[in-house]
Every structure is written in structure tokens, then in C-alpha cells.
Amino acid sequence: MEHYFTNNENLKSNLRSIEYTVKNTSFVFYTDNGVFSKSTVDYGTDLLIKAYLDNSEKTGNVLDIGCGYGVIGIVINKIKGQEIEQVDVNKRALHLTEMNNKENKTKSKVYESNIYEKITNKFDVIITNPPIRAGKKIYMTILKEAHEHLKPNGELWFVVRKDQGAKTIEKELKENYNIKLIEKQRGYYIYKADFALTN
User: Fold this and answer.
1) What single DSSP character describes residue 12?
2) Is the alpha carbon torsion for 60, 170, 88, 99 positive or negative?
3) Separation of alpha carbons 139 and 93, rounded Å
4) 109 in any annotated domain
5) Residue 30 falls within a domain, yes or no?
6) What's the pLDDT tens digit per position in 37-75?
7) How far is CA 46 from CA 22, 40, 72, in A?
């Protein structure tokens, strides 16, 4: 079964557009077959974006890892004006992200990276709706290794569902992070984690 974290060159394209509004700001996003949540901005991503916009005082650069068709980084760039890098392993998703930057008159650096493989910068914020279906090794690598790419006092923001092991993930990250539950709704948990104590 092909998932959104793989590249399937034979997957037929079915380009469409969806609308999304947050903080009285309207967006249009192009989506396609082979990307996560192609019919609508999923609830977890929406909750993560709103929690970040309402609770983070950071103004520096942001890494949107596993960016899909670019929703999180594009919204943050448009509303907060933060400098964005967006990475994914899915080439179709990256192409859509570039299209969506143009459509929404936003700007980000978009490139292919297998998790942190091609990441060279340090960031004030790393934000992600991690690909749980890709398996624990992948999504825990995204979360556990984030601190290596954060500036001192940088923040990791992520969303995970309760039934996908939110409490277990929280417990594992507490070994290295100062982690705080920011929001929980309909089984979705939004966390902010920082490495300030040991960075």
C-alpha cells in the first residue's frame, strides 16, 4: 500500500484545490493523489496551527518538517511573517508546496529531505504533524532528533492523537525535553517541547 511518505511515479494525478481560513485569513491549497489529507486540512493540523499562532512568541526561523502540501509553513509565513524552510520525502508534496506558496503569495525554502538528512540550519521552531503511519522509528526520529537542529531555547511543536500513543510519546520525550501539553481536543494533543535545560 502506497502512503504519502513514499514516491510513486505511477500514481495518477488528480489536482484539486481546497480552501482554508484561520485568523480571518483565507488560503487556497492545491492538493493531489498521494499526499496526506488531500480533501481538506485535517483536524490535527488545524489545531496545531491555531495553538502555535495563539501560544508561541517566537519570531525567528521555522522548519516545517514533513510539510505535505505546505499548509503549516505557509500559514505561519503569511500570518506571522516568519522565515520558513519546508521539507518532505514526497516529491509531489514538495511540488504542491511550491505551487501553494505562489498561490498564497508566501515564501519558503522548499526541498527534499529524508527527515533531517539535508537540514543544515538551526531553527527557532520546528513544527510537524508527524507521519504516524510511516512507523514509530520515523516519527520518533523526527521528534527525538529535533533538538540537534534547534537553536538554544528553540521550540518543537507537534500534534499526535491520544489513540496513536500520545502519552507514551510524551513520556519518552520527557527524558530529554521540557515538554508541555498546550491543547487537547477530540483526542488530539498539541505539545510544545524545548531543550532549554540541556541545550
Assistant:
1) P
2) negative
3) 18
4) yes
5) no
6) 777 899 999 999 999 999 999 999 999 999 999 999 999
7) 8, 10, 8
Q: Does residue 181 contact residue 173 with C-beta atoms inside 8 Å? A: no
12 CA to centre of own chain: 25
Return the ∠ at Cα 154 (arms to 153 and 160), rounded to 5°.
Answer: 130
Assess if residue 111 is contained within a domain: yes
Cα gap 183→167, rounded to integer Å:
14
3-state secondary structure of 74: helix
pTM for the full model? 0.92
| Domain assignment of residue 162, given as a range | 43-194
Task: Extract the C-alpha cell encoding 162.
Answer: 491520544
SS3 162: helix
Task: Give the three cell numbers for residue 67.
Answer: 510539510
Number of domains in the chain: 1
User: What is the Cα–Cα distance from 94 to 85, expressed in whole angstroms?
Assistant: 11
Mean pLDDT of 103-116: 96
CATH assignment at residue 87: 3.40.50.150
Which residues are CB-neighbours of 64 under 8 A, at least 6 positions away?
70, 72, 73, 76, 84, 85, 86, 87, 108, 127, 128
Contact 121, 63 (CB under 8 A): yes
Q: How far apart are CA 16 and CA 33, in angstroms?
A: 9
Q: Classify residue 32: in a domain, yes or no.
A: no
